[in-house]
Each structure stands twice: as C-alpha cells, then as structure tokens.
Amino acid sequence: MKVVSIGGGTGLSSLLRGLKKLVPDYINDLSAIVTVADNGGSSGRLREEMGIPAPGDVRNCIVALAEDEDILTKVFQYRFQEGEGLKGHSFGNLFLTVLAKITGNFLEAVETTSDILKIKGKIIPSTAQQVDLVAKFTDGKIIRGETQITEYGKKLIAKIEKIWMEPENVKAPEDAIEAILDADIITLGPGSLYTSVIPNLLVNDIKDALIKSKARKIYISNVMTQYGETDDYAVSDHIKAIEDTVGKHFIDSVIVNTQLPPDDVLKRYMKEHAEPVVVDAANISRMGVKVYSGNLLDEGSYARHNPDKLNQVVLQIINEIKNSKIAVNG
User: Fold this and answer.
1) In angstroms, rounded to a whole number, what is the distance separating the alpha carbons of residues 297 and 131?
2) pTM of full prediction above 0.85
C-alpha cells in the first residue's frame, strides 16, 4: 500500500511514529506532506531572519520517521537553553536552515536530512515558499500569522470565520502531487484543524490533487476541541470545515476516539475551555462518511492518540482495501 499523511504539529509526528512500524510489511511507500506556515518559536525566528519556510514541523516528522531513535535523533531534537542568539533554537531547525542556505533549496535540505537519519518514508513540505496564514474572525478582526491566530482565538472574543494563505498561489512540490495521485490511502490529521491540517489544503495544487486522487481519504479526528479554533465542534463540523476548504465532498472515512481521558486530565483541559470532540454518528453518516471508532487514547498527562492504536485501525483499513481488490479481481 502507498500511504500519504497530511498535516502538521505533534498530531502528524505521533501518527508517523506508529505508521513507520507498518513499513515495509504493509506499507511499501509512506509519504508525509507537512505544513510550513508556523511562525512561532525557533521556526518563526529562522523563517523571518533567514527567509526559509518554517522548519519545525518538518523536523519533528523527520525524527518521527527515523529508523532508530538513537543519539543522532536526540541531537536533532536538542533545544538550546542558553547562549545569545541560540537560546530557544532546536539543533534540527538550525541544521535544516544551514543546509537550505548551502544548497539554495529547502526541499533538498529536507531530503538530505532525511537520508542522514535514515527515515522510513519521505517528508515533503506542502510548499517550498514562505507563506503566512491569515484568518478572519466573527468579530471582523483579521489576524495574520499562525501563532497570532491561535493566541487571538484563546481570548474567546470570536471564532474563526475564514482562513486563507498569503501569497495565495504558491506551488506544491511535484513529489507531493505525485504522492497524492499515486496513493492508496490518504490520511488528514490529527492536529489543529485550522493551523495544522487546513493550511496544507490552501495550496491549490494539493487541493486539486486530492480531488483527483482515487485513494481512500481518511480524516483522523482530534481527541479534544481547541479553544478559539474548534469550540463546540463535533466530528462532522471538523469534516465540514475541511471539505469547505477543498470545495467538494471527498472524505470517505473518519477515525474517532471514543474513550474519555482520565478525570484529572479532562479537568485540566476543561479549565482551558477544551472538551472531548463529540462523535455525532448520525450527522457523519448523512455526509456519506464511514466511521471507525475505538479507544485510541494514549496514557499520560495529555489527551492524545496512541500511535500503536491508530496503527491497528489503519491496518484494518489496509486489509479491507486488499480484500475488496481480491473480490473484484475474483
């Protein structure tokens, strides 16, 4: 099976950490298409100062797909705690930046770094150009920048009404388009809906390829809502926001978590105005989307997906596709 995963943030890297275990027995071609719209922290500083796409989410996904989580992997995730100019920077971000400057090509820098860490798949930025996210909120306010959008949302003054990318007509790498068109399965998420998943779909080339692709398209729904972005959103609202961005119904299936986090974790999230995403099965069914559900929760102090539990659902879908092909071919 050829699998393409689209997204960003901790959600995508967590998914990839699980999917690499299915390579090569069940997945012979794994690609991740990653947003580069981040403008906060180390990524944001390098983006502004060095004129490159944000490297942070790309770096996390490279590390997630690394064959062995050895000392070199830890070096790439090392974050400087001191030093004028260095404090707050990740070594991996600096490494990608240096390579991009030496080669003059961000895509080549990503490919070289991937080779060094011997990753089990391919990481493809959704665009090699510098981009900004821009959002219009329901109070009429227009906010530029991923970090600024998130921070404005946290004020609970208004909700996101519309989101777009500037410049609007950026190009996607050819590898990204080819991967989408050749895929058997395409996953979107998990991750922040408006700042990790949707930014990839604002690249017109990617949006068009998704519509043309004959792959099984699967949305992996978030465990919790994100205040200022998806307050009161049920699973169907997440799907609708994605399909409204693309301009066409294209999602075939959705993977949802049905397990509540432990009380202490849930209370902490609810203090931050986040709550479990409601699985509104009837609405999802009316959209023509098949639901795969189960306890997908990871242990620990965060309400996040367990990579191995997600793996099992993806494996179930892989087997379903294989069996349907066998039935068709007799």
Assistant:
1) 33
2) yes
